[in-house]
Amino acid sequence: MKYAYTYVMDTLSDWELGYVLPELNTGRYFRPSIEPVPVRTVGLTLDPIVTMGGVRIVPDATIDEVTTENTAVLLLPGAETWHESQHAPVFGKVADLLDHEVPVAAICGATGALAAAGLLNERRHTSNALEYLKMVAPDYTGEPRYVPETAVVDGPLITANSTGGLHLGRLVLERLDLCSKETLEAWFEFFHTGDGKWFYALMESVAAR
């Protein structure tokens, strides 16, 4: 069994993974015969954390339990506490996963943390702004590979700015090859535009499975 591990910490930005987690965990729009990807929360310890929205989460596992063999994707949400040194064990895990082509998806403050750890210097990436990365990561040298887009993919690494939860979700589902092209397009466009025609296109694509 492979899991969608979601790193959780105090001040986690509740909304940033709100699009991708339900789709991974339910598999409701996946192609036929593809099973859901269970979501497991992972922390530094099993002690509860409290999100920015005040939601209390007890992690299912610790970061040490995340391996290249049991991970479908590691999701890193934004948070106001990424600058704290206690999160250092996460970056070694990220480097190992990326070296083994296991997807890692980071959004908002998590991209700043990866930049500070030197993990964005050699890969195409985005963030809230180039100036933001320079501010939070003094040793960052990845400016030539910075792309001013909402979300960017470079091999197994997916990065997004703080407005890019939906875009990150699309890239994760695409990278894992879970949905048909038609379903993924309709899913993204419906939530992106709110146009009802995409809702019907999404339902039709699912019915055609």
UniProtKB/TrEMBL annotation:
Which key words are in the record? Glutamine amidotransferase
What are the residue boundaries of the DJ-1/PfpI domain, all occurrences included? 4-164
Q: Which Pfam families match?
A: DJ-1_PfpI
Q: What is this protein called?
A: Type 1 glutamine amidotransferase family protein
Q: Which organism is it from?
A: Fodinicola feengrottensis
